[in-house]
Amino acid sequence: MLNTKTLLSTLLIFVPISIAAHFFEWGSTIVFITSALAIIPLAGWMGTATEEIAVVLGPNLGGLLNATFGNATELIIGIVALNAGLVDVVKSSLVGSIMGNLLLVMGLSMFLGGLRFKEQQFQPVIARLNASAMNLAVIAILVPTAVDVTSIGIQEPTMQTLSAAVAIVLITVYILTLLFSMKTHSYLYDVGVAENDADGQITPEEAGHEAEKVNLKLWIGVLLLATLTVAFESELLVGTLEEATNNLGLTALFTGVILVPIIGNAAEHATAVTVAMKDKMDLSVSVALGSSLQIALFVAPVLVLAGWILGKPMDLNFNPFELIAVAVSVLIANSVSSDGRSDWLEGVLLLAAYTVLGIAFYFHPIIEGIG
Amino acid sequence: MLNTKTLLSTLLIFVPISIAAHFFEWGSTIVFITSALAIIPLAGWMGTATEEIAVVLGPNLGGLLNATFGNATELIIGIVALNAGLVDVVKSSLVGSIMGNLLLVMGLSMFLGGLRFKEQQFQPVIARLNASAMNLAVIAILVPTAVDVTSIGIQEPTMQTLSAAVAIVLITVYILTLLFSMKTHSYLYDVGVAENDADGQITPEEAGHEAEKVNLKLWIGVLLLATLTVAFESELLVGTLEEATNNLGLTALFTGVILVPIIGNAAEHATAVTVAMKDKMDLSVSVALGSSLQIALFVAPVLVLAGWILGKPMDLNFNPFELIAVAVSVLIANSVSSDGRSDWLEGVLLLAAYTVLGIAFYFHPIIEGIG
Amino acid sequence: MLNTKTLLSTLLIFVPISIAAHFFEWGSTIVFITSALAIIPLAGWMGTATEEIAVVLGPNLGGLLNATFGNATELIIGIVALNAGLVDVVKSSLVGSIMGNLLLVMGLSMFLGGLRFKEQQFQPVIARLNASAMNLAVIAILVPTAVDVTSIGIQEPTMQTLSAAVAIVLITVYILTLLFSMKTHSYLYDVGVAENDADGQITPEEAGHEAEKVNLKLWIGVLLLATLTVAFESELLVGTLEEATNNLGLTALFTGVILVPIIGNAAEHATAVTVAMKDKMDLSVSVALGSSLQIALFVAPVLVLAGWILGKPMDLNFNPFELIAVAVSVLIANSVSSDGRSDWLEGVLLLAAYTVLGIAFYFHPIIEGIG
């Protein structure tokens, strides 16, 4: 964990470089790449700071903080991109984040973990419950597109209303999921919490004694600073996205589905893979499944409502291929994770699915309108 | 159970009211609403009478009676509506009945049961077998629409033939399912039968001693009377459906998918929820899954064949969104029920799926031709 | 086993008959039917010879031989038909082989086995792993069609490139699957190997003592002879396919999806059913699942690459109904097999699904271009 974190932190050098590239106008491609590289360690530090503060706040408030800030990077990039009018890129990056967590992160974890351990176990009850919640989320997100595709067409204001209604249902389910996991059925999640210890962080038990020692103010400062910097770097990233990806010969669809999610989720990727290689599959699987669930039940509906407020309305009407990609990602992730055991071949299957979908997005001829 | 039944029976007052509304021409909206309210307790009495007669007839003939009359209300409304030419409403109500049983009934049962009991158990083998049968039924019902959508179009006579062939396969499977559950593998279903006791009704064991005491003729009379009255009220309901729902600002699609199934299934809803709150989840889940299976394997194909006889041919070519709704209902119901345990959050997930689909049907712009 | 084999071998009489029918020009329908009947026992002998040689070669090389030649008949018919330009028939027969193995073979096995044994058990771990691999394969094969359907259309060269890329991913996964089952996790498959004994063939253990006795050269001769004869009969079959099926009033789609796979897989059908009736469900299920997996992960991508070499490019752009058929076949096969137990009703469900899909293909109005 420490090595990964150190490695990631060296990328902080790209914060000043990207700023320099912006002010001295080294070209949009360089600004795009350096700001992308700068966001990766910042997202990692936001995650660490969130967890440290959560420990001090205790399981309830802390859990809530984690649940709200767990995908803060995606949320910030999403709002900045929405504000810049890149509605399609935002929608694509939601699809890509779910796909990336379920296939790339879980696949890498199972593959690399499986190279070291013949079979790895994790709690199937939580995996199944997450699978059911994920199924609901995918169904809900699929519905507006399905209404559009199966009718003679639906007017944009109706689509907005439908999307907002779905968003409200999803946020309600998200809040109830938190109530379930933190209050009424928290005992189901105890294994995961105990193993949290394994990644070298302070557990709630230890925290009782050490709380005074933790410099809460310091971590709040780190969180604020990292959040502001991510917001700033997101502006650089979003502002150069269209021109840079054109220069690189990539479609907006590919950028949104593959590139942006990898940038936003790199820190989580590192965590999930690192703990999988320590045979802590419960934690690894719950990071991957939990993160994709959070995107679907919280980030996506919040962005729908945020778009409304920003006057840049974002509906849930996706390109049908994006829906197919999400649906098959959920299908194969459920199929692989529902039995509570994994091996390297299951990792290969997930990675192969990601590769095939990635190739398809690369060749997909629909160039969605940017701006 | 008694309270629910008493409550339902007070609705019988709407039988004379609806008749008065019809003869004194109080307007189609009032006739529609009062006949709908009248059907609910009548369906409940049909169910009770069927079960009482089934007990006297013994497990074999009684099981057959239950299997045939279990969804008699849907069948009667369906035939009356078919005869009135409301083919699309009939098709939509089949979709809505399956959706309603899997999501609304099972969701309410798991939610309300889960509020009282932390975790509830039921037999996963039967849930899985029902899931496989339900998968088959959905696949079969999906096939004619899929042929139509994936081709340059299929001529109506061919669609009729295809639908009839599928209907015959489905009825054959239904008969074999009865043979399985009542003859060759009845031991798998013993838990459910034993728990049947819990809803305060007479079990086969007790029946051996009490059979003489049961006034068989009385129950047959109740069944006949309730059946005839349902048929009459169905005429009132169907005759005013088009005008009344227009007045209420509802599309035919929404009426067929949401309103009609709630009217036809209210009694089953009450049973399933009541027994769930007594922690009899085996019975509750089997009512919900069994009823949806009966709709798909028996009511739907019988209506296809009945339409042929009535000269109002009904094919199995659905609006693709209806198919998506059924498919995702089955998917999430399977996902939630396959592990043989439930909690309140699983109920929430099913209810959320129902809500989202209901919203979508409300906004769906396809107004199918009525009449 | 012996009886089935003897029965099949009597069909060898159709080898000379079909050749006579060809040279004396008895008409394409007769050549088509007799060459089809001739291929069935030849495929059986190829299978037997492959297994006998595999025993001598030992588990590693032998396993590889089995994995490569296991669906040699499909591969030969496929290459001959590709070379004759019948690209759509080849694609349809891939779909039909997967469907046939999952629904017809597994359905017949579970049904006939279930008539004799109340419940039959098999190893669920392998069934689930196969299910996950099958899900991946279907997803991968679905992707090019999905890209085409969800876009304004994709140019043929791009479709070829996309299909070739998917084919390479699939072959890579296939090789890794062999590595998994033969090297790193072979212990998971031990039950299946032990039961192999049951079908009266020589096990590896016995082989150690008997290897000298086995006339290796004889079996290699049988394999070569059968392979060459299958190739020749395939030419007769393919050369008369278009005219004969027209005479019989069948569409090219129905021929490809239903007829050709039954001819190519008859020997495997016989094996799977025979061992199921001896309560060796592990072997029976692994033949059916393994064969369909081999088609998807090996035969299909090899044909894509072979088409490229032959200058008769075959992409993976299917008729959407073919995709639906494969997807629902995998869905219901997974649903039935994932719990590691079967009974006759589960067999009925699979057979009913096959029947419904067969009826649909019979009526499907798309007549794909032959030649």
TrEMBL record, chains A, B, C:
It is a multi-pass membrane protein. One of its GO terms (molecular function) is calcium:proton antiporter activity. One of its GO terms (biological process) is intracellular calcium ion homeostasis. Its main location: membrane. It comes from the Bacteria. One of its GO terms (cellular component) is membrane. The chain crosses the membrane at residues 30-49, 61-82, 94-113, 125-147, 159-180, 218-241, 247-267, 287-310, 316-336, 348-367. Residues 28-182, 220-358 form the Sodium/calcium exchanger membrane region domain. It is found in: Endomembrane system. Keywords: Antiport, Calcium, Calcium transport, Ion transport, Membrane, Transmembrane, Transmembrane helix, Transport. Ca(+)/H(+) antiporter that extrudes calcium in exchange for external protons. Belongs to the Ca(2+):cation antiporter (CaCA) (TC 2.A.19) family. PANTHER family: VACUOLAR CALCIUM ION TRANSPORTER (PTHR31503). This is Ca(2+)/H(+) antiporter. The lineage of its organism: Bacteria, Bacillati, Cyanobacteriota, Cyanophyceae, Oscillatoriophycideae.
